[in-house]
Design brief:
This protein has 639 residues and is of the alpha+beta class. It is built from 22 helices and 18 strands. It folds into two domains: 180 residues, Biosynthetic peptidoglycan transglycosylase-like (Penicillin binding protein transpeptidase fold, Orthogonal Bundle); 304 residues, DD-peptidase/beta-lactamase superfamily (Beta-lactamase). The strands form six sheets. It has a five-stranded mixed sheet. The protein starts with a helix and ends in an 18-residue tail after the last helix.
């Protein structure tokens, strides 16, 4: 290279820039600020992470103790049965559930649930980090969701302890609880809790009630086709329910069976057979209606009074009632038939039948049609009994020892002071018969002798007798009380007459024989424990006289071809007519009237309207019951 060339290149070199100190200072400042910002941000993130970890640690420290599940008792459905074990009604709160042992669940169902929900259940410790990836892969291969990412253990703790909120902290808490649960409980215990806890649709919680609803069978009897349907419901019970969309049910079933085949848990032949098998679908059982609603309503009231509402709705009670379902159906049929005959004059009836030996209610009809009126006239309607009240007066007279069935009493005019007026009782026909026997007075239902006896024995003593017999309705000590000037229920009348039938031995009427919990532990035992509350001679004397009411008196239409005792009742305005009667094995009260207290036609009596209802029911109810005679007054010592 020549010197000139070198010089030329030298001349073409750019001149050096002059140093700009202001710009350089700006760049230095920005660098310092950026470094400070990065440092601050890093410290802030670290603080947030550290705070989050501390928060999670505190949160985890406050998580519930899974050991409480050792005494966990989930809410269960209560069942009400008749005396022979026939199911009458099931009742529950939101959750229709019956807890069952893991060994009482079909192996098909356990495998199907594990296949679709957690196929690695027996190999993980509560959480399975790779399960999410496996679930994604399985779902991608199937083209739809066939396996979830949460383990069964995680699902269980979420249902029992956590909210459905979707957040990282909740998911971490779920994992922590799942690990703890697996440390305390065996796999079989966890699976049992899960299958009894999970929601299966239509208010069915737990596998047993779901199996009963979907397939009308116990969970232990589920076949592979049925089990694969059940397992498929867990992800979205209402969507895949055969009650809602049978086509979706079959599609979901195919996914479950395919997953089971993929895992090698069933053969190709079993898969094809299960997929093609017809499904016999049951019916939705949650919140079903009672087959005997007046009875079960009264039973539930008695249960709630004793145990409380929560225990009844959530306690899994097994309630054996006193009701004889055959007798109950007979009572309902008789009431319907007679109501159709007299509906223009009386729109309602009530009937209560009680076994005098136990005071168990054997049948009860609270009205003509429960679907139209749920008011229970047998237990709630307080109506005047009229002359059906007179036996209480006559028993009180016999119990004094001064009167016997053939004692004489005057059926003659009489007046009693009644405030500013005088009260003069009259007989139904307006006549007087003079001196007659007590037997005759009661057989033909004379009013004046009953009022006179009431004054002789004392109105307060009659009220006290009624209380002894279990009558709780309010009573005023008025002169006309012996004629039924009081409002009583058919249940009270039947229970009191049942004590007469049992020669003075009394128990409180009940609808319940016994109550157990779902494990069979006895909660209530109503084994009869009758107490002798009446004088046996006086009771036998009354029974002797009341037989004449049917044989010769006002209730000849109540003749059932065997020894029976009873009394008609009719109010002056014909608003209420009654017949209450009994044999030694069964006491029955029948009331007929109108809910609005409208009078029936003139001349309506207990003998014409109520006694025939009683007769027809008793003939059917006693068809297979041996004839039994009442004990005679001579069998006892007179007071």
């Amino acid at each position: 290279m020549s010197t000139n060339t070198i010089r030329q290149k030298t001349r073409t070199q750019p001149k050096p820039l002059r140093r700009n100190t202001g710009v350089l200072k700006y760049v230095q400042d920005v660098g310092q600020v950026t470094a400070a910002t990065l440092l601050g941000t890093t410290m802030l993130v670290s603080a947030v992470v550290a705070g989050g970890l501390v928060g999670l640690a505190i949160s985890f420290r406050n998580l519930p103790d899974v050991r409480v599940l050792r005494n966990y008792a989930p809410s269960e459905t209560s069942y009400i049965y008749d005396i022979d074990g026939n199911l009458l009604f099931r009742l529950h709160d939101e959750a229709n559930r019956e807890v069952v042992d893991i060994n009482d669940i079909s192996p098909h169902l356990k495998r199907a649930v594990l296949a679709i929900e957690d196929s690695y259940f027996y190999s993980h410790n509560g959480i399975n980090p790779s399960s999410v990836g496996r679930a994604l892969l399985a779902n991608a291969q199937a083209g739809s969701t066939v396996e979830g990412g949460s383990t069964i253990t995680m699902q269980l703790v979420k249902n029992l302890f956590l909210t459905p909120e979707r957040s990282i902290s909740r998911k971490v808490a779920e994992a922590v609880l799942a690990l703890r649960l697996e440390q305390v409980f065996s796999k079989e215990e966890i699976l049992e809790m899960y299958l009894n806890q999970v929601y299966w649709g239509h208010n069915n919680y737990g596998v047993e009630t779901a199996a009963q609803s979907y397939f009308n069978k116990s969970a232990r009897d589920l076949t592979l086709p049925e089990a694969s349907v059940m397992a498929g419901l867990i992800q979205a019970p209402e969507r895949y329910s055969p009650f809602n969309n049978y086509g979706a049910t079959k599609q979901r079933q195919a996914m479950v069976l395919s997953r089971m085949r993929q895992l090698g848990w069933i053969s190709a032949e079993e898969q094809a057979s299960a997929q093609g098998a017809p499904l016999l679908i049951g019916e939705i059982t949650s919140f079903g209606s009672s087959s005997v609603p007046y009875v079960t309503d009264a039973t539930v009231l008695e249960l709630k009074d004793r145990f409380g509402t929560d225990a009844v709705l959530k306690g899994g009670m097994r309630v054996q009632t006193t009701i004889d379902l055959t007798m109950q159906r007979q009572a309902e049929e008789v009431v319907r038939r007679h109501n159709s005959r007299i509906a223009r004059m009386a729109d309602q009836m009530a009937l209560v039948a009680i076994d005098p030996r136990t005071h168990f209610v054997k049948a009860m009809v609270g009205g003509v049609d429960y679907s139209k009126s749920q008011f229970n006239r047998a237990t709630m309607a307080q109506r005047q009994p009229g002359s059906a009240f007179k036996p209480f007066v006559y028993y009180a007279a016999f119990a004094t020892g001064r009167y016997a069935p053939d004692s004489s009493i005057a059926d003659t005019p009489v007046s009693y002071p009644d405030g500013y007026r005088s009260y003069s009782p009259r007989n139904y026909d307006g006549s007087f018969m003079g001196d007659i026997s007590i037997r005759k007075a009661l057989e033909v239902s004379r009013n004046v002798p009953a009022v006179k006896l009431g004054q002789t024995v004392g109105i307060n003593n009659i009220i006290e007798l009624c209380r002894t017999l279990g009558i709780q309705s309010p009573m005023l000590p008025v002169t006309s009380l012996p004629l039924g000037a009081v409002d009583l229920t058919p249940m009270e009348m039947a229970g009191a007459y049942a004590t007469f039938a049992n020669n003075g031995w009394h128990s409180d009427p009940t609808f319940i024989v016994q109550v157990t919990d779902s494990s069979g532990n006895l909660l209530l035992d109503n084994t009869p424990n009758p107490q002798l509350v009446l004088d046996p001679w006086a009771a036998a004397a009354l029974n002797d006289v009341l037989q004449g009411v049917i044989v010769r008196g006002t209730a000849r239409s109540a003749d059932i071809g065997r020894p029976a005792a009873g009394k008609t009742g009719t109010t002056d305005s014909q608003r209420d007519v009654w017949f209450v009667g009994y044999v030694p094995q069964l006491a029955t009260a029948v009331w007929v009237g109108n809910d609005n207290y409208r009078p029936m036609r003139s001349g309506a009596t207990g003998g014409t309207y109520a006694a025939p209802v009683w007769r027809d029911f008793m003939r059917q109810a006693l068809a297979d019951v041996p004839v039994e005679n009442f004990r005679r007054p001579s069998d006892f010592v007179r007071p």
